Amino acid sequence: MLKLSMQALVCAVSLSVAGMLHAAGNAPISIKFAHVVAEHTPKGQGALLFKKLAEERLPGRVRVEVYPNSSLFGDGKEMEALLLGDVQLLAPSLAKFEHYAKQIQIFDLPFIFDDIHAVDRFQQSPQGKSLLTSMESKGITGLAYWHNGMKQLSANKALHEPKDARGLKFRVQASAVLDEQFKALRAAPRKMSFAEVYQGLQTGVVNGTENTWSNYESQKVHEVQKFFTESNHGAIDYMVITNTKFWNGLPEDVRSELEAVMGEVTVEVNKQAEALNQASRQTIVDAKTSEIIELTPEQRAEWRKAMQPVWQKFEDQIGKDMIEAAQAANSAP
Ligand code: LMR
């Protein structure tokens, strides 16, 4: 009798353990992807495409939830959340990594890249790729670079020459390089999260900012800024990042499929980004609420001269080699 019930007990326990394992095996892996921009921007579109392809290729095995517009975590909180495991994918702008890897500040140096193609060539170079793994000791793995595009200036007054910016308050991302860039113009930079930009400009807490056409248009910045200056003085691009432990802990087949999907999405985002930015620029033109100032080559050279002293200030942190590799990317092979 005792023998029988022991057997029954063992059997019942092993069944329920097997049941639990089965249930665990069946539960899709939850991947939260949070970002701060609107859905019709390059990053917004990329996150949605990643969800679509990942769920199509790994049916029932992964569930991707996308949180745009700082709806889950905004600037300032998102990296911490990634390290705590509260979110699994982020794509912060490359200006937001200075606390994790000083070398990534290379992307913020004004006028270091002639255009987005140069940015792309640098990202694909050995030095560019090395930055993707530069934060692994801190628990962050870079999976890909996604483009947004080149930055333009905006203000409540016309900016033709560097001296026009003097004394104005400019919103900057949380980046020491960008802070210095505006100080070099004798302007007053104010670090502010992306979600606060519209209100900051509307209420006059800041008088101007810098961003891409897609970010301006999607945040309706043209409603609260009279002038844009097409300066193309820097880039806003992204590193898609994940928690290293989470990523390495995924089942091998899931991880390799997600990496393949990330590769495809990256190609697509980087192909579409320029067109999305140009469409946003056109929306701003059509809205007729602001003026877009185009610079002559001489005027652009003046802005470059005014901002370039910033390179020297960050050379030790970023590394001379890294700066040379970035400059080399300006000439196509
Ligand atoms: C910003 O804060 O201006 C950008 O980083 C926003 C973004 O993610 O494009």
TrEMBL record:
The keyword Transmembrane helix does not apply. CDD domains: PBP2_TRAP_SBP_like_1. Residues 1-23 form the signal peptide. Keywords: Signal, Transport. Pfam families: DctP. Belongs to the bacterial solute-binding protein 7 family. This is C4-dicarboxylate ABC transporter. It comes from Phytopseudomonas dryadis.
